[in-house]
Amino acid sequence: MTNQRLTVVIAAHNEAQALPVLHPRIAAALEQLDGIEGRVLYVDDGSTDASWAVLQRIAQADSRVALLRLSRNFGKEAALTAGLDQVEAGAAMILDADGQDPPELIPQFVARWREGYDDVHGTRIQREGEGWLKRATAHGFYRFIGRLSKTPIPADTGDFRLLSPRSLSALKQLRERHRFMKGLFGWVGFNQIAIPYRRQARLAGRSNFGFWRLWNFALEGITSFSTAPLRAATYLGVLTALVAFAFALWIVIKAMLWGDAVAGWPTMMSVILFLGGVQLVALGLIGEYLGRLYEESKQRPLYLVDVWQPAAGGVSSGQ
Ligand code: UDP
Ligand code: MG
Fold first, then answer.
1. For residue 245, how many C-alpha atoms fall within 13 Å in the half-sphere facing its CB?
2. Counting C-beta atoms within 10 Å of the first and last residue's C-beta, which end of the chain has fewer, N or C?
3. Residue 167 Cα to chain centre, angstroms
4. Which residue windows are transmembrane per the record (predicted)?
5. In angstroms, what is the span from residue 98 Cα to ligand 1's centroid?
6. What angle do CA 37, 180, 292 make, to 5 degrees?
């Protein structure tokens, strides 16, 4: 097995400070690989800082580096998809631009790939530089989605992973717009193995994912990989209907036995409000799924390329 290719794909959004520190570490890791042609592909996901200029400098100094710039900020998942789409041969390794996924582990990932694994993913045994709230919610989320989703989604596992050529080409066939990558990797399957690692603190800058964005990301994951909430709405509806019937029966019997003195305004109000609330929740749930269906039906491209600059090559614009 000589001269297989490995392309390290990195999505970067405003990482001008971290990139110059990260690149030498990646370069050093690639040099350790025996019989493997190492490449690096940076995807600039609509950065508004000096990231693109920094990347240009890195590419000038290192002929293994290719660059891709998207037309605007499309989000990490789309940026990664754009990067992976450009990998034509060999395996791909995904890591974060901020140094949270240590490139020093690349040789370990490659060793597993050589043993025949298709999806080698890093599992966080410890997270450094992240608050307890983020750690606790992340922990809860991975357990929750793990139980809800029929697709296996390994816990505490992010995008830090190596994909063999066949798992990469399988992933390329999944073109859905709402991309919950962790789930997509799980859907692909093949031989998967985890490599435990300590997640480092960011090299510089701050996380792009605030609380609100993470919350939406969690909703994305749940609605993309499970229809359990719809089922839950059905059960809630059935339960409410049963209780309503019992209550109606009780009212009728009461009226027959003791007559019907007009009273019960509190009861009426609470029943109306309760039923209204349940209906709105169920409607909102349907809306979440419908909205996603609507997005899919538009069939827009997942991203647009502004500049594609192959390794040590000329610049070509547009797509
Ligand atoms: N990122 C991106 N586009 C975005 C947001 C983030 O390409 O819109 C990249 C970012 O540069 C980093 C990775 O995705 O390389 C993870 O982002 P971040 O570190 O902000 O997230 P966290 O590690 O806190 O989950
Ligand atoms: Mg990070």
1. 5
2. N
3. 17
4. 232-253, 265-290
5. 8
6. 140
E strands in 13-129: 36-44, 65-70, 91-94, 119-127
Ligand 1 center–CA 105 separation, angstroms: 19
CA of 15 to the centre of ligand 1 (A): 9
> Could you tell me the fold of the domain covering 4-225?
Spore Coat Polysaccharide Biosynthesis Protein SpsA; Chain A (3.90.550)
- The residue to mutate among 13, 69, 77, 200, having the most atoms of ligand 1 within 8 angstroms of its beta carbon, is 13
Name which of 149, 203, 180 is nearest 76 in CA terms.
Answer: 180
Pocket of ligand 1 contains residue 75 by CB under 6 Å? yes
pLDDT in tens, 170-204: 999 998 888 888 889 988 989 999 999 888 888 77
Query: How far is the CA of 233 from the CAs of 78, 159, 198, 239, 259, in angstroms?
Result: 31, 32, 39, 10, 37
What separation in Å is there between the alpha carbon of 205 and the centre of ligand 2? 9
Q: Which helix (H) or strand (E) holds 162?
A: strand 157-163
CB 110 within 8 A of CB 33: yes
Ligand 1 atom index nearest CA of 43: 7
Q: Is the CB of 159 under 6 A from ligand 1?
A: no
Give the C-alpha separation, 229 to 233, whole Å: 6
List 93's β-bridge partners, or say none.
8, 162
Distance in angstroms (rounded) separating the CA atoms of residues 161 and 118: 10
Domain boundaries, the chain: 4-225, 227-298
70-121-185 Cα angle (round to 5): 60
Neighbours of ion ligand 2 (CB under 5 A): 96, 98, 100
